Amino acid sequence: MAARNYYVVLGVASNESPQGVREAFHELVRRHHPDRAGPSGVAAFREIMEAYSTLSDPQRRDRYDASLERTTVAERIAPRELSLERDLVESRPSHSAMFERFARNFTSRGVPKGEGLEDLDVDVAISEAEAARGTSLRIGVPVFGRCAACAGSGCAFCEGRGVVQRERAVALDIPPMLGRGTSLVVPLSGLGIHNFYLRVRVRIDRELKPIQETSFSRSRNQKSSSE
Fold first, then answer.
1. Crossing angle, helix 42-55 and helix 58-69, to 10 degrees?
2. Is 56 helix (H, G, I), strand (E, B) or coil?
3. Angle 42-55/18-32 helices, nearest 10 degrees?
4. 58-69 and 216-226 helices cross at what angle (nearest 10)?
5. How far apart are the first and last CA of the chain?
6. How many helices (H) and strands (E) does the chain have?
7. Which one of 82, 168, 185, 216 is most buried, by most CB atoms within 10 A?
8. Do you find a cis peptide bond into 18, omega within 30 degrees of 0?
9. What is the pLDDT of residues 202-211, one digit of tens each?
10. Are 47 and 104 in contact (CB under 8 A)?
């Protein structure tokens, strides 16, 4: 059995910044530490620690990325990427109301009484080849950070909210599957989002072609230019 992809283990994209890797790691440790999760969480905790020990060290991360790059193009199926900002066609409540709900996780402003966890349905089609071998998804999720222009006090740039929107990718491993499809639940607490979770419905499309990744180094170059 192939080793788990460390980026998938931490739920980050392969071009995630060192700070993003640290944030994802600390959130996963809080959730999966054996003191909290019990004996059943030991294996997952060890996997998280192993992934972070590699991805947090620049030299080890470069060697790890190089080992992934050595995988032949014929064997590598690139992850499918989608964004809730760009690709979500229908949403209830409205699109703007949904993103305001995302923002409340970071501003704590205007939180309605009794607001609880709500699912957000995402439909994804994969090819037969991807279904047979397993694949991965990267789902861009809106997150919010303090506005640099006003240091969080509220200004015209951030429309008075004190935060600005950006996007973080959630990595999702799709195991080999048969039949018509499957449904997976993805928590978003690792991104600081506690009032939404994703319900990803994966279906197999016989006419769809797999995405062949031809340049793994491209994503690494993007990471370097963004830091």
1. 100
2. coil
3. 170
4. 150
5. 34
6. 9, 6
7. 168
8. no
9. 888 888 887 7
10. no
The 10 Å CB-count burial string (b at 16+, else e) for 165-188 is eeebbbbbebeebeeebeebebbb
Q: How far is CA 163 from the centre of its chain?
A: 21
- Continuous H helices in the chain: 6-10, 18-32, 34-37, 42-55, 58-69, 84-87, 95-107, 128-133, 216-226
State which fold the 1-76 domain adopts: Helix Hairpins (1.10.287)
Nearest to 107 by CA among 69, 160, 163: 163
Q: What is the pLDDT of residues 113-168, one digit of tens each?
A: 888 888 888 888 888 888 888 888 889 998 888 888 888 888 888 888 788 888 88
Token code pair at residue 138: 């990267």
For CATH 1.10.287.110, the residue range(s) in the chain are 1-76
All CATH 2.60.260.20 domain ranges of the chain, comma separated, are 79-211
Q: What angle do CA 89, 90, 96 make, to 5 degrees?
A: 95
Backbone φ and ψ for 204, nearest 5 degrees, come out as -100, 125
Q: Assign domain 79-211 to its CATH superfamily.
A: Urease metallochaperone UreE, N-terminal domain (2.60.260.20)
